[in-house]
Fold this sequence. Notes:
The chain is 71% helix and 0% strand. It has helices spanning 11-20, 36-57, 59-75, 82-102, 111-138, 140-145, 152-168. It is flat and about 65 Å long. It is an all-alpha fold.
Amino acid sequence: KSRQYGTAGNTASRHSRIAAGFPGRLTISVLPRIPAVCRDRIAVGTDFKEMVTEQYQFRELLYQMTRRDLLLRYKQTVMGFGWAIFMPLVNTVLFTVIFTRVAPLTTDIPYPLFAYCGLLAWNFTSSSLRFAANSLTLNAQLVTKVYFPREILPISAVIVSLVDFSVGSTI
Length: 171
């Protein structure tokens, strides 16, 4: 007979299955016949599916965290969302002056457009990584006191940066 370990939605049983060496919903009789590389891929796929399911179950929390971060970021500025447009424009003007006058650079398209597109993508990547990395340390009290998927904090930070990117892309 083969025994099944835990259910897909129970994270405590998921961690105990991984610690016991039986990731996912695999049975003991199946494990010896599957090559080790395939077992690892199945385990990653099962864990990823559980993580996505858990994110979906906590989608309201993700919405609230994203909303809170957006309000916090723009409540402290006079310009609000205009800041997401203003900063790439200022950087574009600065780069245009430097790379057309001081150190001439030739491109197939007008340089200000070239610089704006590049700076917009760079600012999105930079702010996503910066805020996602800081999100867990800035919310340490929340992480240690209440259970929720910890991935929500970095995902929320990336969504806030995506809103900045979308606002900046309107030009």
